[in-house]
Structure formats: C-alpha cells, structure tokens
Automatic annotation (TrEMBL):
Species of provenance: Triticum turgidum subsp. durum
Chain spans, region Disordered: 64-108
Coiled coil: none
Lineage, opening ranks: Eukaryota, Viridiplantae, Streptophyta, Embryophyta, Tracheophyta
Source species, domain of life: Eukaryota
Protein name per Swiss-Prot or TrEMBL: GCK domain-containing protein
Domain GCK: start-end pairs: 1-67
InterPro entries per UniProt: GCK_dom (IPR012891)
Basic and acidic residues: bias regions: 90-108
Amino acid sequence: MKGGGCKEEFVGWEKCVEQAEAEGGYVVERCHDATAALRRCMDKFPDYYEPILRAERAMAEDLEAFKASEASEPSPASPPPPAAEEEQGDDKKQAEAVVAKEKEDLAA
C-alpha cells in the first residue's frame, strides 16, 4: 500500500487506526474520514490497487450472500410451525392423561 499513489492517505489511515486502538476507541467511527480518503484515492489508481479492490468487492458480495441466507433461515427464537404445535398439544394431552390415571390409582 505504501508503494502506490496513495501512500499519504494510507499512512494517515494507518496512524488513525493505531491511535484509535491505543486509546480504546471505535476504529470504524473514528477513522471514517481517513478510510473514505484512502478509498477515493485507491479508486483513482485502479491498476495498482485492483487486487485489493477486487478482494474488497468479493468480501462485500460474500457478506451480502451470508445476510441473505441468514434472513431466509428461521431464527431459533421463532415459534414452531403449526404442525409441531399440534404434536406438542398431543404430547401434553397424553402426559395429562397419565398424571390423571396415576392420581386415580393413588386415590383407590
């Protein structure tokens, strides 16, 4: 990164990140401007920075695909589908019948 046309922007971004980490700050928010400046510069020199830009695009695509797959899967906190609720109802009825039978046997 320091060998291309964006050396100044990269060094500024790197210093921002190091300072934010040393102070325990949130890097993304704190270094937003430095990151944006670096990105704009990299876009001006696509031949030199193409491998990095390509990897960044691929990572963004992977993230979107992951988010889409997560959104399509039911969450663990989702209520069970109706068929499962009916089965649970049947199990509950059977358990209640067993308990009632045991109470009758104890009373007799």
